[in-house]
Amino acid sequence: MFIRETITKNKMTNKSYKKHVLVESYRTENGPRQRVVMQLGTLTLPKSEWKKLAAALEGRLAGQVTLFEEEKEIAEAAESAMANYSFNQKKVDTKATPQ
Questions:
Q1: Buried (b) or exposed (e) across 2-27, using 16+ Cβ within 10 A?
Q2: Half-sphere exposure of residue 32, counting CA atoms within 13 Å on the CB side?
Q3: What DSSP element (H or E) covers 65?
Q4: Per-residue pLDDT for 99 more than 70?
Q5: Which of 88, 16, 23 is nearest to 53 (CA)?
């Protein structure tokens, strides 16, 4: 898994926005593909730390604790992303259940 940065531009105000996503690569019979696993919002971590954050998030999604969790800013960013992820998952689950 890795983190991808995308830049979107508001055409009305001409202002640019950055957002980050956790992306997973996988293979299909038609060749390699990528899918978004988690929306991260805007990261304040330097780009050199993104690989550690991706590894920490991958571990948390698998139910494991990684060594990168010892670094305070990586742990805080992972905790924030996982809190947002679980909130969004609960929202999706309630929409999926018929009433």
A1: ebeeeeeeeeeeeeeeeebbbeeeee
A2: 4
A3: none
A4: no
A5: 23
- Cα R_g (the chain), whole angstroms: 16
Q: Answer for the pair 3, 50: CB distance below 8 angstroms, yes or no.
A: yes
Q: Which residues contact 40 (CB under 8 A, 6 or more apart)?
A: 3, 19, 20, 21, 22, 81, 84
pLDDT tens track for 16-49: 999 999 999 999 999 999 999 888 988 889 999 9
Query: How many residues would you count in the chain?
Result: 99
Residue whose tokens read 């890795």: 2
Supply 83's token pair. Answer: 């809190």
Please give the Cα distance from 91 to 35 (Å, whole number). Answer: 20
Report the first-to-last Cα separation within the chain, whole angstroms: 36
Hey, is 2 helix, strand or coil? strand
* Number of folded domains that form the chain: 1
